[in-house]
Every structure is written in structure tokens, then in C-alpha cells.
């Protein structure tokens, strides 16, 4: 077999493979004998039909099978001989194939990027020296109390923390907001809308202007939609709302006692407090780990610059577009609004995909360099993580895991294990907490 390799572009090569006529004819003979063993022709027992009759009856199938076998086997051999690692299915062009002739075919192959690994052990990272405080624990318990809050109508002026039940209509430049954002009907007009008066709630600056109002009062509220507002058409736009407060309600939180602790599976308040502190400490540990990893990844990607395979980038972009659309749909964003933002969604997915693909190749190379391998427990840990993130039982994921899904779990587990290795080998410096 003779193989020539021609670079076509970064991460793309052209292999031209030529196989001598002797090997081609031997392959034809082998495939013909296999067909002869299985052939069932009238007047002959299976496997006893003459070769010429088998060729006459199955000639086209024998030719196709020989071609597939030769090209598949010698494509893989050509990759091995030239140390080429493909990242997608090849584009194969048959140039010459007949019995009694050399086989000639070409394969256009996308390959892994080539780059030199930088120093990846001992990378610097900074962390704020945070600790879980009693105030943090108390705030977390207050959040738990909020889940069981009751609301009592009050005959007094509204204060921050109260709930205003309101009716409103909004306009900008004298026109309803739907003139500028057709999908923003809920932001233009509502009745019976419950609004907890908290800084930044609903539209920034809206709640503060209702403080002091009583049930039955009317207010004109002036706002400016922030530059990152969810509706692109309203970003930075000034608006005016006519608001009628139909009810004023006080938010009542339950007393923290053993009965309340029992709602969260704790025997008493002390046990609940301990559990809340442990959860906060785990969250802080996770947050610190994520920060270190983000700094490591940023350092690696800033240090390296290399081209990536187009097909891998395209597939990752499609995956991220699907994920973004799925997440927005789960959050209740309408299909119409998603459609208006499709260009922004694709641009965000494309940029994010490029970084993720580059990181994946870097992490893979580090894993190879450090002989990091995936064990069964690593895959099971990954399954547990996916199950927790998606609120799906582990057993259900394992039951429905096909080979492609298993391969994906192995890749994710290797990625996670390698990032953990980089984190463990980073040089972390703690800084005073921000004031």
C-alpha cells in the first residue's frame, strides 16, 4: 500500500491511497469464496454452487462488499501508518476500483489540532478568604422561612418587604410598550399582579416608587429599562407606568422552632442550623473550586492559540443552541421572543462553542500527557452529577445509557478528572474579602 498525505488546511488532510492489483484480486477471491459458502442457488445445496454461477448471480454485491472492505481496512491502516487521529467521519472519493487494477481512493480527514502544551502545573489562582458566618446561616434560614410565608392585608402605607397587589399599564413616548416590543404584553399591562417590594425586583426602580402608597392609591412610576434587560427592544428605553394599588399585604414569616425545623427533615432548630451551615460550606467550597478552575482555564486558553476542526465546532455550536433554546423555553420565554433573538442566541453559542472545543482539546492532551484514565467509579460519579443537575434518578440514566451515551459519559468524566488534577496542582493565593 502506498499512501501520500497532503495538508489542505489547519486540521484537515488529504490522504491518497493506492493498493496494488494483487491485493485487490486476492480480496475479490476472498469475498467470492465467502459468498459461495452462503449462496443458495436452485439445484445446489448451500455452499455447493459453482463459482461462475455465484459470480453471475451476486457479482454486484461481491464487488460492493470487496470495495467496502478494502477501503475501510486500508483507510484505517493509512491513519495508523501516518499517526493521524481523525475527529469526524472522512469524505472518501473512489478514484479507481476494478478487478485486475490497482485500487486508488482519497480521503479528506479532519484531524486533532497540533499545538505545544504550555506549563499547566502550578498555575496561579486567587481566592477571597471567605468563611461561612452566623449572619450567612441566619439569612439562609430566613430564605427557608420565606417559602412558608403567609400574607396578611394591611391598612397602612406600603414598606419595603411588603407585597403590593397592583394593576398597571406602561407606555413610552406616549405609546404602549408593545409598539416597541410586540412580545412584551405582560410588561405593558397587568391586573392582579403581586409584587414584593424589593430592590431590583420587576424593573429596577419600580418598587421604591410604591413605598408609602396605600390600597386604593394611584401612582405614576418612571423607569428606565437596564441595558441588559431580557427584552432587547426595551433595553435602555425610558417608560412611564400608571399604577393602581388594589391591595397592600404584609409578609409574615413563620417562627423558627422545632415544628418549623421538621418541615425540612430536621429534628429540632439546632439540627436545622447545623444542616444549613454544612450546605453553605459545601456551596462555598464548590464556588471556590469553580473560581480556581475558571482562572486555570482562562490562563490556558490565553496562552494557547490554535485552529480547531470545523465539523467539531459546528456540532458543539448546534448543541449549545439547542441547550439555550431549551433553557429559555423551560423559563417560560415564548417561542416568538426566542425567534426574535435567534441571531443573538447563535452568536453567543458560536463564541462559547469555540472556547469549549479549544478547552476540550487542551484537557485531552493534558490527560494523555499525565496518563489520566477513567475508572468505573469516575463514570458513576459523572452519572450522579448529571442526575442531580437534571433531577433524574441515577437508575433511569443508567438504564437508558446506550453506547454513544456511555462514550459521552466517559469523555465528561475524563474532562472532570483532568480539571480536578489541574486544580489540585494550582498555586492558590487567598486575598482579603472585598469590603
Mind explaining what this structure looks like?
With 435 residues, the protein is α+β, with helices and mostly antiparallel strands. The protein folds into three domains: 2-110, Trigger factor ribosome-binding domain (Alpha-Beta Plaits, 2-Layer Sandwich); 150-252, Chitinase A, domain 3, CATH 3.10.50; 284-431, Trigger factor, domain 2. The protein has twelve helices and twelve strands. It has helices at residues 21-38, 51-81, 134-146, 185-188, 258-262, 269-303, 310-330, 335-340, 342-369, 376-390, 394-399, 403-424; strands spanning 2-9, 12-19, 91-96, 103-110, 124-128, 150-153, 163-172, 175-176, 189-196, 218-224, 238-252, 427-431. Strands 6, 7, 8, 9, 10 and 11 form a six-stranded antiparallel sheet that branches. A hairpin with a 2-residue loop joins strand 1 (2-9) and strand 2 (12-19). Helix 6 packs across helix 12 and helix 7 packs across helix 9 (342-369). The model has no long low-confidence stretch (mean pLDDT 91).
Describe the main β-sheet briefly.
6 strands, antiparallel
Fraction of residues in helix: 40-55%
Binned strand content: 15-25%
How many alpha or pi helices? Answer: 12
Amino acid at each position: 500500500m502506498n499512501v501520500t498525505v497532503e495538508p489542505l488546511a489547519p486540521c484537515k488532510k488529504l490522504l491518497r491511497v493506492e493498493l496494488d492489483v494483487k491485493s485487490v484480486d486476492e480480496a475479490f477471491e476472498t469475498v467470492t469464496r465467502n459468498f459461495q459458502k452462503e449462496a443458495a442457488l436452485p439445484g445446489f445445496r448451500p455452499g455447493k454452487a459453482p463459482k461462475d454461477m455465484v459470480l453471475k448471480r451476486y457479482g454486484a454485491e461481491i464487488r460492493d462488499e470487496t470495495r467496502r472492505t478494502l477501503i475501510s481496512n486500508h483507510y484505517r491502516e493509512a491513519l495508523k501508518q501516518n499517526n493521524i487521529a481523525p475527529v469526524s467521519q472522512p469524505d472518501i472519493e473512489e478514484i479507481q476500483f476494478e478487478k485486475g487494477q490497482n485500487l486508488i481512493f482519497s480521503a479528506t480527514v479532519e484531524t486533532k489540532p497540533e499545538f505545544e502544551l504550555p506549563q499547566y502545573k502550578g498555575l496561579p489562582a486567587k481566592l477571597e478568604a471567605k468563611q461561612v458566618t452566623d449572619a450567612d446561616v441566619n439569612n439562609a434560614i430566613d430564605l427557608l422561612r420565606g417559602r412558608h410565608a403567609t400574607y396578611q392585608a394591611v391598612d397602612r402605607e406600603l414598606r419595603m418587604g411588603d407585597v403590593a397587589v397592583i394593576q398597571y399599564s406602561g407606555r413610552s413616548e406616549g405609546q404602549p410598550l408593545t409598539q416597541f416590543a410586540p412580545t412584551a404584553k405582560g410588561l405593558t399591562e397587568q391586573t392582579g399582579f403581586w409584587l414584593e417590594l424589593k430592590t431590583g425586583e420587576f424593573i429596577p426602580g419600580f418598587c421604591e416608587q410604591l413605598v408609602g402608597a396605600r390600597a386604593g392609591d394611584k401612582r405614576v412610576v418612571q423607569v428606565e429599562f437596564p441595558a441588559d434587560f431580557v427584552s432587547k427592544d426595551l433595553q435602555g428605553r425610558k417608560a412611564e407606568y400608571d399604577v393602581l394599588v388594589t391591595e397592600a399585604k404584609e409578609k409574615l414569616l413563620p417562627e423558627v422552632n422545632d415544628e418549623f425545623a421538621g418541615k425540612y427533615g430536621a429534628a429540632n432548630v439546632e439540627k436545622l442550623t447545623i444542616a444549613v451551615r454544612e450546605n453553605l460550606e459545601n456551596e462555598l467550597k464548590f464556588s471556590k473550586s469553580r473560581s480556581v478552575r475558571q482562572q486555570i482555564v482562562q490562563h490556558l486558553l490565553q496562552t494557547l492559540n490554535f485552529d480547531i476542526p470545523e465539523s467539531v465546532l459546528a456540532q458543539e455550536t448546534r448543541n449549545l443552541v439547542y441547550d439555550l433554546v431549551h433553557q429559555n423555553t423551560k423559563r417560560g420565554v415564548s417561542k416568538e421572543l426566542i425567534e426574535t433573538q435567534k441571531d443573538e442566541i447563535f452568536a453567543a453559542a458560536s463564541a462559547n462553542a469555540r472556547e469549549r472545543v479549544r478547552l476540550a482539546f487542551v484537557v485531552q492532551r493534558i490527560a494523555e500527557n499525565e496518563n489520566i484514565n477513567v475508572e468505573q467509579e469516575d463514570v458513576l460519579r459523572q452519572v450522579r452529577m448529571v442526575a442531580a443537575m437534571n433531577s433524574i434518578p441515577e437508575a433511569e440514566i443508567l438504564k437508558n445509557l446506550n453506547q454513544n451515551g456511555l462514550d459521552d459519559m466517559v469523555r465528561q468524566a475524563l474532562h472532570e478528572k483532568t480539571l480536578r488534577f489541574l486544580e489540585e496542582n494550582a498555586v492558590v493565593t487567598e486575598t482579603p474579602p472585598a469590603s
